[in-house]
Amino acid sequence: MTLALPGADGSLRGYEPRTEPLAATPGTPLTSRTVFSAAHVVADPFADTTPDSPAAVDWDATLAFRRHLWSHGLGVAEAMDTAQRGMGLDWAGAAELIRRSAAEARSVGGRIVCGVGTDQITGGGLADVRAAYEEQLAVVEEAGARAVLMASRALAAAARGPEDYLETYGHLLRQAAEPVVLHWLGPMFDPALEGYWGSSDLDAATGTFLEVVAAHPDKVDGVKVSLLDARREVDLRRRLPRGVRCYTGDDFNYPELIAGDDQGFSHALLGVFDPLGPLAAEAVRVLDTGDTAGFRALLDPTVPLSRHIFQAPTRFYKTGVVFLAWLAGHQDHFTMVGGLQSARSLPHLARAYELADGLGLFPDPKRAEERMRNLLSLYGVNQ
Q1: Phi, psi (5° rounding) for residue 226?
Q2: What is the rounded distance in angstroms from the CA atom of residue 353 to the CA atom of residue 100?
Q3: Chain center to CA of 251
Q4: What is the pLDDT of residues 189-248, one digit of tens each?
Q5: Which of 53, 223, 226, 272 makes an SS bond possible with 49, Cβ 3.0 to 4.6 Å?
Q6: pTM higher than 0.70 for the full model?
């Protein structure tokens, strides 16, 4: 039955939903690339909360979604920005999420890395920033997980120049028990991170970032780059010390960056692999056989959906990710911590549904269609 979907111009267009999902089942472990999905959290829809109150998380549904990702061979990047760090999920909630997910990973043999930041503070000097990072690093290491050193709003505000980044990250890397992933999150994902690494000039910032890595190559497993600039990522990964991975965080250009060229490739740590998990895993298995064309044939068609979900203001991509998880049946509601389900318009969500359905991402297309109809009716769109 045709659905009437609203467009950006206010008109309604007819869409014929897909009837069969894409066949994607759990398979062999991924071998040619290390791939993490930055996973979202599922809110508790019955909690009596406000946008300013601590997050209420549905732990059962949240952990079930991580088991879904692990079952397809993907790693989980926990407590990252996809989990609404700094946008609804506070440090207390993130710490609990890290402990629970790390324990779950051990129980099923899943790969996990966890975000370490400074979101328990809102200001202060460099000493406060270091102490906040140290507190979070201790939680991740005590949970038995590997750390992702995330970009810090507090450090961006306190740092006077590149030397403060070099000193702060050097201090943290020297005391890390295991090699970490360094995360460079661009201001399109968080405007408070403008000028990170001590400069708004990306060439100068890249130089400082690489200087941190070069000074501590034994303590850096890899770098995650989220700048939505494929050329810059390729240039950066070619300058990394041998043995340091580049994890693409580019949700616009990931197929070409993962496929790579004759001088190397990127691994992946991506928010878009939350909704694309089974399909992404299947594509990497094809790449494991050496079939780059087959990999691109599977993954290239997903780029329009990713670019749509991550369109400006990019930081609100989490709404599209959770929306698709609801349509796919991974949770029973479209509610987010902090009330962030309101951050995208109905036309935006309708287009996300259309693109995802066209890819066959919904295990039960009929259920996804019914849920889309219910959402449309709440907005007064009569079918």
Answers
A1: -120, 75
A2: 31
A3: 9
A4: 999 999 999 999 999 999 999 999 999 999 999 999 999 999 999 999 999 999 999 999
A5: 53
A6: yes
